[in-house]
Structures are given as C-alpha cells and as structure tokens.
Specification:
Strand content of chain B: 25-35%
Strand order of the largest sheet of chain A: 1-5-7-6
Radius of gyration of chain A: 24 Å
Strand content of chain A: 5-15%
Oligomer: heterodimer
Helix content of chain B: 10-25%
Radius of gyration of chain B: 11 Å
Shape of chain B: globular
Number of domains of chain B: 1
Distance between the termini of chain B: 14 Å
Largest sheet of chain B: 4 strands, mixed
Mean pLDDT of chain A: 88
Number of helices of chain A: 12
Strand order of the largest sheet of chain B: 2-1-4-3
Helix content of chain A: 55-70%
Chain lengths: ~300, ~60
C-alpha cells in the first residue's frame, strides 16, 4: 500500500489505545491523578508514533530513518528511572512504605508497557501496509487482548492459600495461630488488638511460592496493598498497631496481622489474594535440579 | 528521612528498681501498675516508640 497516511494513523491509533487500556488506575493507587495519567498517555502516543512510522520507513526504503527510530526508542529507558525516582521520593513521607522491590516492579512495568505500545503500533501498521486498512481492525484488537492477557502476571492467590488466622496473646507476645508477630507491652493495646485485630495465614503451595513469600519485599507489597484499601490505625508517633507479615520459620508460611479502619476479614483475604507476585522476588528453586531434588 | 534512634531502648519503666541497672537510658520509677502503664503510654507517644513488656514487671520503650 502506498498511502502511508492510513498506515501511520492505524498504527498510532492502535498503539495509543493499547497504552490507554494498559493504564488502569486500579487499587494499587497508581497513577490516580490526571497529570500522572497524562504523562503516560503522552509517552504512549509518542511510542505509538515511533512504531507506526517504522513500517513506511522500511517500505520506502529509508534506512537512515529506521536508525533514528531505534535511537528514539532508547528514550523509553528513562521512563523506568522517572517512575523509580518519583516513587522512591514519595516513600519518605509514607506511613506504610511500598518497599523498593515493589517500586522496581512498577517502574519496570511502566517501561515495558511503552515497548508493548511500540510493538502494537508496529504490527498494526505492518498489517495495514501488507494487506490493507481493514486488517487494522483484526490485528489491533488481537494484539491488545494478547498483551492484556500475557502481561497481567500472577497473584498471591495463584501461589498460596490464604485463610483466616486467630489473633491471640501468649504472655506479652502477639500471635496469629502459631506465628509470633511482636511483643506488645500495654494491656490496653492488647485489648484493642484482641477486639479489632485481624489475622490471615498465607500458606505457600510449593517451594517456589515459599521462597517468594520469604522475601521482605513481597511481604511489604502485601502490607502496602492491604493498607491502601482497608486503611490502618497507625499514625505518626503511634506505631503500635503496625501491620506486618511474619514467617513461621519451621513450616515456611506467613502470618499477616493488621488493625484496619475497615475490619472486613473476607475482603482482607480477597485483597491479599490479589497482591501481585513481584518479579524481583519470584522464587525459582523448582527450575533447578537441586531445588527439585530437595523439594521431594 | 528518619534520623532518630532506632532499635534502641529509649526509656525503662519499672516499679522495682532492683531489677534494672542503669545503662545509657533513663529509668522511670512508678509506684504501681497503673502509673507504670500511664507513664509508658505517654513516653511511647512522645518518643514515637512502642511499649514492650519483659514480663517481669519491666516495660521499656523502643522505636523500630
């Protein structure tokens, strides 16, 4: 096809739409504000344009233009740094922090989504170039569905069993089932915890999951996600009711404790199940020979 | 950025001075359990720490 306008327009439209679909402001509270979203939509538009003009540049053929496109694509590496810097700065003023592992994960996803946008635009405009404009309506949605499916990642609910745990005290030690959470001194605080505290046991399904839940970064992510929905009764200088996740060292499962503003245990379990498994803490022991041997 | 003292005993509250030897942090003597709890609560709020119980009648404040 010689009419490059349609080729480029189809690519840009498909790429931008895909970026918009991937930019879901979900319960992770990020990015929730119009300006944050605008930044990513604008970057997504630029990425889509890059992908879309690549096909006419090759078809013409103008290899200098292609080289420049490759150079321009390098710019998207900055997206990761930008996200990381913003989120790390915000950590300092947070009562419950996200943790560096979670931030790294978010930053990486933002970078990767721009490349997905480029690819969507490239493939859509390629299809239009080869077969005609009607194919944009087939290839475009197909890639969008694929990217939404493939890039969604796994959740704690996929790798572990989440169930209720009873909160009780052994002397001054706060326990969830048989896991020690912390030492609580004041009787009035203990009373409050017994009345309002909620406990959850997170049991890994296999050795990979156990290693994953071991990582403090993953635990911080669980705590952060729960607090960002249910709230917590922690304030500046009043950190006694700090939510936390501790491990049963012998059996390897986690106990999660929180005193939430919204004491709804069923929702708590659902939220924990939907916490993303972080890429940087994912356990891979079962992929190794010795890991598999040790597991059986 | 947090520049305070973390993971350090900031204050000890007890009714029985025989069980504590001073070593770097103030020791508060309370006359009874009720006063001990009250002093601990106030100190914890002021210092931004939390109250721990050693289960032998000694409370201490620590910031984590």
């Amino acid at each position: 096809m010689d009419n490059y306008d349609i080729v480029i327009a189809a690519g840009i439209a498909a790429g931008s739409l895909n970026r918009w679909l991937l930019l879901r402001s979900d319960y992770r509270h990020y990015p929730t504000y119009p300006h944050g979203q605008l930044i990513h939509l604008a970057l997504g538009f630029i990425a889509a344009s890059l992908g879309a003009v690549a096909v006419p540049a090759i078809a013409k053929p103008d290899f200098v233009a292609v080289t420049f496109l490759v150079l321009a694509a390098q710019q998207f590496r900055e997206v990761r740094n930008m996200e990381r810097e913003t989120l790390t700065k915000l950590e300092e003023s947070k009562l419950i922090s996200r943790g560096t592992d979670y931030i790294e994960g978010i930053a990486r996803v933002f970078e990767a989504r721009n490349y997905l946008t480029i690819m969507t635009a490239l493939l859509t405009s390629g299809a239009v170039q080869l077969w005609g404009w009607k194919y944009a309506f087939i290839i475009g949605p197909l890639i969008m569905i694929l990217t939404l499916r493939l890039m969604s990642g796994s959740f704690i609910g996929d790798i572990a069993e989440v169930k209720k745990g009873t909160v009780h005290f052994k002397g001054s030690l706060l326990m969830i089932e048989d896991v020690v959470i912390m030492n609580v001194g004041l009787p009035q605080t203990r009373k409050k915890i017994i009345e309002e505290g909620m406990g959850v046991i997170i049991k890994p399904l296999d050795d990979n999951a156990r290693l994953n839940l071991d990582a403090p970064g993953q635990r911080k992510a669980i705590v952060h996600d729960v607090v960002s929905i249910l709230g917590s009764k922690v304030d500046i200088n009043e950190t006694e009711l700090m939510p936390m996740a501790r491990k049963q060292v012998d059996k390897g499962y986690l106990a999660f404790f929180i005193v939430a503003n919204e004491p709804d245990l069923e929702m708590l379990i659902e939220i924990v199940k939907r916490v993303p498994v972080l890429e940087s803490t994912r356990g891979t022991t079962l992929l190794s020979y010795f890991g598999r041997k040790a597991a059986d | 950025m947090n520049t305070g003292l973390n993971e350090y005993i900031l204050a000890i509250i007890t009714c029985d001075l025989d069980k504590v030897k001073s070593g770097g942090c103030p020791v508060f003597l309370a006359s009874d359990q009720e006063e001990k709890e009250k002093i601990s609560l106030l100190l914890a709020r002021i210092l931004g720490g939390i109250v721990h119980d050693l289960e032998n009648g000694i409370y201490f404040i620590c910031k984590h």
